[in-house]
Write a structure and sequence with these properties.
single chain; 365 residues; alpha+beta; 10-stranded mixed beta sheet; 3-stranded antiparallel beta sheet; 10 helices
């Protein structure tokens, strides 16, 4: 009836405007590098995979069906067995034994897999729909996609049907001599389906907390931005100039909720405060978007971070509330030795919480 397989890429097609808007909304937490040259971008991706990094790829129309086939995928090196546990536990957050599938250049598939009567047909499994045995001589080379029984759930990729994915795998093949990559669905939150929109992709990428090294979305190569402490503290730049201190700002309106249980022992009461910021990039509707705070200090900091105060001003405000120009001392004679130490403790406590709030996209600067 059909001369060739139907395309599985029949889902929604994100516009360039939607992609740019999603990236801009999360820009305080992203390091963004636009690379329009496909070959250069594929080389960067292939080298990241070859070095042991895990990347996410989001482009074009999404897949129709249960499998991620290269448009909404997490990709890694099939040669590295340790990545199976790492991706399961740290990226997908599931049982460590769950297997992964290879996406293989169709013209090379018969050299690596026993395809039986299908050896004459290169594109035997474009939908990742068959299980094939890895040839015994090859199993040691691709342990991350070889199941304990020697089988593998194979996807074959042709240059005609999927030219971009074929070029990426070819770039990895040129580097390593292995014509395939480990492929799993792009989703990192419990109960989350394969990401659909650009905002979904960024949320899932940020929620991996750095276990996904790189997100490639359309022409953009995106990494998670490190917390810029020098900017926050106004430290001296490389050129000797003192940079202006950044002013931490909440990602949006904050909803607070505090709960506690009263028992016969009043000292056992431990209130728990959580917050919800619907506009933050890592907001997850499935769990209500709630984020549990460490303590009251973290909650107070979140309230103060409205984009109008520098770190020095925040520290001064806390010191003022706790005792004028510094922390209270029980002995005025000891003030000169105690205050610097207590100031340092306050500084460290505030910095730890600001970093945590930043990493979870509740504040940015």
């Amino acid at each position: 009836l059909w001369s060739e397989p139907l395309s599985p890429y029949l889902g929604p097609m994100p516009s360039k405007m939607e992609i740019r808007e999603a990236i801009e909304a999360a820009s305080p937490w992203l390091q963004i590098d636009p690379i329009k040259d496909d070959d250069r971008r594929f080389e960067i991706m292939a080298r990241e995979i070859e070095s042991g990094g895990v990347i996410a790829w989001y482009h074009s129309r999404s897949e129709l069906g249960p499998r991620a086939l290269g448009h909404r995928s997490i990709l890694a090196d099939p040669r590295k067995k340790a990545l199976v546990r790492f991706i399961n536990e740290h990226v997908k957050k599931r049982e460590s034994f769950r297997p992964f599938a290879p996406s293989c250049l169709a013209e090379e598939a018969s050299n690596w897999f026993d395809l039986g009567d299908n050896d004459f047909n290169d594109n035997v499994s474009p939908y990742m729909s068959i299980t094939a045995n890895v040839k015994e001589s090859k199993r040691g080379q691709i342990p991350a996609v070889t199941h304990v029984d020697g089988s593998s759930r194979l996807q074959t990729v042709t240059a005609k049907a999927e030219p971009l994915y074929h070029r990426l795998i070819s770039a990895f093949f040129d580097l390593t001599g292995v014509p395939m990559v480990l492929n799993t669905s792009f989703n990192t939150l419990k109960g989350e389906p394969i990401v659909e929109t650009p905002s979904n992709a960024i949320r899932s990428f940020l929620s991996s907390m750095g276990s996904i090294e790189m997100l490639v979305m359309d022409e953009y190569v995106i990494r998670r931005r490190d917390c810029d402490m020098k900017s926050l503290m106004g430290e001296e730049r490389d050129d000797g100039l003192i940079r202006e201190q950044s002013k931490p700002k909440r990602a949006g309106d904050v909803f607070y909720e505090t709960k506690f249980t009263i028992t016969d022992d009043p000292e056992s009461i431990q209130p728990v405060t959580r917050v919800c910021i619907p506009d933050r990039p890592m907001h997850n509707e499935k769990d209500g978007g709630w984020f549990e705070l460490l303590d009251d200090l973290e909650g107070e900091l979140l309230g103060i971070c409205d984009g109008s105060s520098t770190l020095n001003e925040i520290l001064t405000q806390f010191k003022s509330e706790m005792g004028g120009d510094g922390m209270p001392s029980s002995n005025e004679d000891d003030e000169s030795t105690e205050l610097p130490e207590l100031d340092q403790i306050l500084f460290e406590n505030i910095m730890r919480r600001l970093i945590r709030l930043y990493e979870h996209t509740l504040i940015g600067w």
